[in-house]
Amino acid sequence: MSATPIQILRQHQEVFLDRMLMRLSESLPSYARVDVVGLRESVRGLTEDLLLAVETGDSTQLTQRMNQTSAERVSQGFSLAEYLRALFLAPSLCRELIREVGPRNEPAMAKAFAELEERLHQLTATAANIFTEAASQQLRSKNLELNRLNQQLHAREKALEAEGVKVSRALASANEFNSRVIESLSSGVVVVDHPNGRISLYSQRMEGIFEIPAEEALGREVREVFGKLKGVDAALIIQSVRATGRFPLTKLQISSAHGRKRTVLVQAQRMYGVDGEVEGTVCVVDDVSERELLIDSFSRYVSRDLLTRLLSRSEPLALEAERRTCTVLFADIRGFTGIAERLAPEALHRLLNGYLHAMVESIVEHGGFIDKFVGDKVMALFTGPRNEADAAHAAVEAALAMQVRIAAQNAARRAAGEVDIEVGVGVNTGEVVVGNVGDEARMDFTAIGDAVNVADRLQSLARGGQLLVGGHTAELLAGRVKLRDLGAQQVKGRAAPVSVFEVEGKLGG
Fold it and tell me: Is residue 232 a contact partner of residue 261, using CB atoms and an 8 Å limit?
């Protein structure tokens, strides 16, 4: 005997559930809001109660299930049309499944399915009535709640009117205060609204820095306004804020629409409203042109490293010092007194400037710190980023670079019929005291100690074009440069002899 449609549906219930869920997601996107696991259990329960009602004729349990499901879908915002379309899927899926797995061309099966389909349509009509009643009940409940809330709101309306006036006055006062604070800042402030990118706040200080009047900035797109400046990439700033929430403090060289050049520090942050939503971007601009001019001017007299350190201090300078291991370099022109005697002052000035320029470039590019110039003598300090060996190697690299530059200068001088110069260099590594020496009224930042004196004496021993290093420096350079041991030598002013090594070049060079 063939299985009945009810039996077929029971045997293939999981297949029916899978197809039902797939059809729901394909034809009714609203069901994507419903939890998949919960939806499957809901369809399973409805299917079981439906089959039971068809078999027994008792729809009590199915009606209870429909009441529960209807209430859930109404609360989830489903319309009657969406609910009915979901129910209408059941008969077609039942027909599809029975045709696939049931016997074909059997009159008894066709009759049994026709009876099942008629029963399904009757239950669908019942479900529609249940859903409509659930929706009406929820609407009545909401109307009652809305009436109650309206009464409460009406009761508070008068109190809120008075409170609103008070808050408006306080807000106006706060806005006025904030405006006064912003206008009193030495920094320029710009606020750009999100997402239209238009400027909603443009402080008076900004007018002075960018030389763009407020009437030409307020309400305009920020790219349009900043496009009048050279050196400001508004798109990059906005992109950085949107991606990371901030644009880090950055120094820019800009030119105003009138051609005036300025050095500014720019930073920007994402701005949030009281509800936590992004409202825009606040950009702060500081004009540091005078400070940069000060650094540029005075770095011609003292080291830029030293000047930066002095400007970053939060306390007055004192005669303080610290013990540190570093490598000291001295360089000096051989026979400079005789050269000075033969040259006119102007020619001597040109020669000395060219020589010192070569010394400074070589030292700075290898991370050295220029301590001082004494006539034609240069003193520099090196402290490696990781260890003593790095410092020693950097000092020797700087000295070798000096030799290359001096050789190039000599070739140019010979071509111009001018005198050559030869430079002796001494390098030594050891413990020194680094700090301010002198008087509270006039200080000098330098290093003192035996290691400094030895470096100066090695420079005195060096012939023109020769680079001499001390024993400890030679140990640190092992495996990095070619060294020739010159033995222990007595130097002026020191009782103990000094181990002296000559650097003959780079290994493999």
Answer: no
Q: Are 198 and 219 in contact (CB under 8 A)?
A: yes
Task: Return phi, psi of residue 162, to 5°.
Answer: -65, -40
CATH 1.10.490 domain position(s) in the chain: 5-145
- Taking each continuous run of H as one helix and of E as one strand, the counts in the chain are 16, 13
Burial class (CB within 10 angstroms; exposed 0-12, middle 13-18, buried 19+) of 102: buried
Closest Cα to residue 108, out of 3, 208, 19, 183?
Answer: 3
Q: What residue type is 199 in one-letter code? A: I
CA distances from 101 to 16, 17, 89, 265 (A): 12, 16, 19, 77
Distance between CA atoms of residues 368 and 382, nearest Å: 5
Check if the beta carbon of residue 298 is closer than 8 Å to that of residue 309: no
Q: How far apart are CA 355 and CA 340, in angstroms?
A: 14
CATH 3.30.450.20 residue spans of the chain: 186-292
Low-confidence winner among 136-150, 197-211, 236-250, 459-473 (lowest mean pLDDT): 136-150
Is there a cis peptide before residue 195, judged by omega within 30 degrees of 0?
A: yes
Q: Residue 26 to residues 21, 45, 73: CA-CA distances in angstroms?
A: 9, 21, 18
CATH class for the region spanning 186-292: alpha beta
pTM of the model: 0.46
Residues across the chain: 509
Closest CA to 98 of 203, 9, 215: 9
What are the tens digits of pLDDT across the range 197-241?
A: 888 888 888 888 888 888 888 888 888 888 778 888 877 887 888
Give the separation between CA 497 and CA 487, rounded to whole angstroms: 9
Q: Quick one: tokens of 408?
A: 């190039």
pLDDT, tens digit, for every residue of 273-291?
Answer: 877 788 888 888 888 776 6
Distance CA 32, CA 26 (A): 9
Tokens (6 digits) for 268: 């920007």
CA-to-CA distance for 452 and 430, rounded, in angstroms?
8
Q: How far apart are CA 504 and CA 499, in angstroms?
A: 16
Q: Is 273:285 a contact under the CB 8 Å cutoff?
A: no
Q: Are the C-beta atoms of residues 352 and 305 closer than 8 Å to each other? A: no
For the domain spanning 5-145, the CATH number is 1.10.490
Q: What letter represents residue 342's amino acid? A: R
212-229 burial: b if 16+ Cβ within 10 Å, else e: beeebbeeeebeebbebb
Which pairs from 416-422 meet CB under 8 Å and 24+ separation? Answer: 418/347, 418/351, 419/339, 419/342, 419/343, 419/351, 421/333, 421/334, 421/336, 421/339, 421/351, 421/355, 421/464, 422/333, 422/334, 422/335, 422/463, 422/464, 422/465
CA 315/CA 443 separation, integer angstroms: 15
Architecture of 317-506 per CATH? 2-Layer Sandwich (3.30)
First-to-last alpha carbon distance for the chain, in angstroms, is 100
Cα 427 from Cα 421, distance rounded (Å): 20
3-state secondary structure of 98: helix
- DSSP element (H, E) containing 11: helix 5-11
